[in-house]
Predict the 3D structure of the following.
Amino acid sequence: MQKKDKVTLKVQGVSIEFPGVKALSDVDFSIETGEIRAIVGANGAGKSTLMKVLAGANPGYTGTILYNDKPVDIRTPQKAKDLGIEIVYQEVDMALFPAQTVAENVMMNHLINGMKTPFVNWNKLRNKARETLERLHIQVDVNRLVGELTLAEKQMVLIARAVREKCGFLILDEPTAPLSVSETKELFEIVKGLIQKENIAVIFISHRLGEVMEICEKVDVMRNGRMVGRLEVTPRLTSKMIVDMMLGKSFEENFPKAVTKCGDVAFEVKNLWDQGGAVQDVSLNIRQGEIVGISGLVGAGKTELCKVLFGDRKRKEGQIFLRGKELIIRSPTDAVKAGMGLVPEERRKEGVLVDEPVYFNLSAASLSSYCNPAGFVNKKAELENAGRYISSLGIKTPSEHQLVRYLSGGNQQKVAVGKWLSADCQVYIFDEPTKGVDVGAKHDIFQLITDIAGAGKCVLYVTSETAEILAITDRTYVMYGGRVTAELRTADTTEEEIMYYSTGGQ
Amino acid sequence: MADIKKKQFHVGKLITDWAAVIAVVFLLLFFSAKMPETFATGANFTTIFRSIAVTTVMAMGLTMTLAVGGFDLSAGSTATMASFILMSLLIWYDMNVWLAILLTIGGTLLITLCTMFLIVVCKIPDLLATCAMMFFLDGLSLTYSGGGAISAGMPRPDGSQSLGSVPAVLKTMGTSPTIIVIMAAVVVFVHIFLNYTKYGRYIYGVGGNRTAARLSGIPVQRYRIIAGLMAGTFIALAGILVASRNQSAQINGAAGFSMPALSAVFIGRSVAGQGKPNAIGTLIGATLVGVLDNGLVMMSVPYYSLNAIKGVVLAIALASAYYTTKEE
């Protein structure tokens, strides 16, 4: 492909609303080919939403998009593709066909739209795929099955597919989050090569500010669904300047945190390693009645830490103590018996049984206490208990018998928490408990967690939202690359400091 | 919340929830109108229940398997194997009938453990593992019997004369009312077990969402195996009933019950808006299959066309039960 005339893409006054949230308000953005642009912002700032608008995956937007100064309507992914806008989502597996070869995956657009005969010419297909990969300096054998590739290689395959045909704008949504340092370096080489050789623009979304400053010329900063500023990458620009722009006043800062009195250390973890290397040498402790945060970016190993603690991920080394007694936890069953409860991140997939009624979920972890020795459930006692938690947690449901599927996200989360309250746990682990819930429910969940700590339980609050850490925790550990990089007293720290350690302290 | 309530009274939902029951009632009315003299008689209804007993007992086993999120293609072959074990013990070794029944159930459970090993430990998908077991068991039961059926008076595989006969207990088991009582007992047991005990609730939990169940502290593998072993027990019982009805162990004797039993469970899933395999629904499903079978035979539909009509009715019943299912 030769250098052609520059192509521009402009977004003017784009807004989009989801039920209860204004995800984008009046956003302006423009880019032209030949440039790498970063978009940064805290979680929920609207970065991914904006990119989805460009990729045709958010057809409900209002506002104008100009392609070479001509207005265009991008309401379907196909329309975006026609304009040469390609997106590589973070969940690479969603877009790949694992049982087919690299060649087929790279050539998938051709196989779907470009075939003139019903027969596949394998030699031609492989050669064309190989040419594309070579052009991009990607070293992956075209005959391998995609299912066998590493995450980094899968990304490369997707990039190759995206830029193979008349791609003008390539969007990479947090591509480096799951990659190792060397893999990231390789990816950057490829992206830089792309810019030099092809008439293309790359929009790069990342939380890792070090990377952003390394690879991009300009950084657009978003906050709460708005575009709040643009920074030029110069030697004078620091992470702190970007972070300052990213953060703003928000709901969390207004949450009245009760002053808690904490007892002695009740829960202690010593030198914990998991078997995949996602959790490395983590030590932490929680005092009675204390809310301890684990902060860190997506991919820092927080969820993995929760799962190792809860016995749902293999432990390689390390010890866990509750009130001085070592816990032998080989499975979640052991963890529950030991008095631990986990409210997992993927609520609908892991936290609740969506096809079962509310009462069923509320007693899922404590059913034995409503049973006679023969194992028969005392339905009356169970329903009474469910009724009690429905009213004390304020779960909005027509009855105990409603299927959890029909509750809103916030109410589902309350059910997931209520399950452990019924079981009277000693240690509560919350993994991103406010993900996908509205502000009102968020307030309720915060209140609930504060009450749990107030009752003398240990709470581990895991989130990538720095503002939440500041709002609710007493103390926080910061993770980066599977390790704890800092332990901070919430009262003495700032969002900037947490962000600093979360991004590797650069 | 208001529109959710409204949806529950929606006509489409009503049809989905009661499709199987509507079908049974419709068929009963249809056949009774066509053949008031022969179909709508007490004797014929007894015949229908007797004929669905084996299907229902096997389907109760499959209800357990499907409730925990599994699947089983090998139920028919497993039941055939059970009937061969039973008849060999009785005919070849002239064993006490109760001991023989116990050993048959024990042997069948060993087979089930092998299946569970393939599924739980080797992690082969249920469908494939039980498909393999189906082939294996078909071959194994024939190898064991020396390639033929086992019935009273026939020589053992080594040529020596067998001494045993079919005991009276086994003869009674296969006739009404005993066989109907056994069926009813099994249905009631499974219904109570799944709905009123914590074990049943754990099984539904595991079947509904294995990850969420594990993260709630439910020992998932243990309940998968428990459900499998209970299913194995009912499948063994189905095999014993087949043997008692035939007074012998026939080649592929129980194979024909596998698919009707699976259909019964799938038809029963949606009954009364349960949305999951359940004992009562399965019984209704089995009744649907049985009524259809009986009525069609009485209407002198040629035997070779029966399956075609059954397939069509099954498809209609399933379509009305599933078509409102939303994709995630």
